[in-house]
């Protein structure tokens, strides 16, 4: 199957787009811990896309670093999505995690849908209070207790 080719020249981090270098210590790729806050925030807001293997070098300037060990990073994503001590709910399906080509390098695109009313709030760990995030502009922010209750 041919990989989709993405042009990052018009990328801009926003409410529905986040890029993470995701290189790890060995520079072969690793799921950064901050990805789970973004996952929670996008799931609780309007969804969005997270790209692993792309770095914002300057505001509005993105560089494709690629992910060398795609299989390891994909497995780590799935393992963590099914670990209730990491996140309370996996709302992703196989089609939501894909490998795309950016500047001739393979990166991982995670398409996070908006969680259904039944699945919200999507939060980190087992306690939603203090561990639920919302996406505002280009940032992930902790939801206050009243927002979590609603």
Give me some keywords for this one.
150 residues, five-stranded mixed beta sheet, 28% strand
Spatial shape: globular
Order of helices and strands: EEHEEEHEEEEH
Mean pLDDT: 94
With strands numbered from the N-terminus, the spatial order across the biggest sheet is 1-6-7-3-2
Structure annotation, total helices: 3
**Cα separation of the termini:** 43 Å
The secondary-structure class comes to alpha/beta
Question: What summary fits the major beta sheet?
Answer: 5 strands, mixed
Low-confidence stretches: none
β-strand percent reads: 25-35%
Radius of gyration: 15 Å
The helix fraction, in percent, is: 10-25%
Strand count = 9
Short description, anyone?
The protein has 150 residues and is an alpha/beta fold.
Structure description:
With 150 residues, this protein is of the alpha/beta class. Helix content is 18%, strand content 28%. It contains three helices and nine strands, in the order E-E-H-E-E-E-H-E-E-E-E-H. The chain has helices spanning 35-44, 70-81, 145-149, and strands spanning 5-6, 17-20, 48-52, 54-58, 61-64, 97-102, 105-112, 133-136, 139-142. The strands form three sheets. A five-stranded mixed sheet has the order 1-6-7-3-2. Strand 4 (54-58) and strand 5 form a beta hairpin. It starts with a strand and ends with a helix.
Break the fold down into its secondary structure elements and pairings:
Elements (H helix, E strand, L loop, with lengths): L4 E2 L10 E4 L14 H10 L3 E5 L1 E5 L2 E4 L5 H12 L15 E6 L2 E8 L20 E4 L2 E4 L2 H5 L1
Parallel strand pairs: 1-6, 2-3
Antiparallel strand pairs: 3-7, 4-5, 6-7, 8-9
């Amino acid at each position: 199957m041919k990989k989709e080719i993405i042009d990052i020249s018009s990328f801009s981090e926003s409410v529905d787009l986040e890029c993470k270098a995701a290189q790890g210590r060995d520079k072969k790729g690793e799921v950064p811990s901050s990805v789970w806050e973004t996952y929670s925030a996008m799931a609780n807001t309007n969804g969005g896309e997270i790209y692993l293997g792309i770095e914002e070098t300057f505001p509005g300037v993105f560089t494709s670093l690629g992910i060398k060990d795609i299989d390891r990073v994909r497995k780590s994503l799935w393992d963590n999505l099914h670990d209730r001590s990491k996140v309370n709910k996996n709302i992703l399906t196989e089609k939501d995690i894909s490998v795309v080509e950016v500047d001739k390098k393979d990166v991982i695109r995670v398409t996070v849908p908006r969680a259904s009313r039944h699945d919200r709030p999507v939060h980190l760990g087992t306690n939603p209070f203090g561990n639920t995030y919302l996406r505002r502009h280009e940032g992930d922010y902790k939801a206050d207790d009243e927002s979590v209750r609603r």
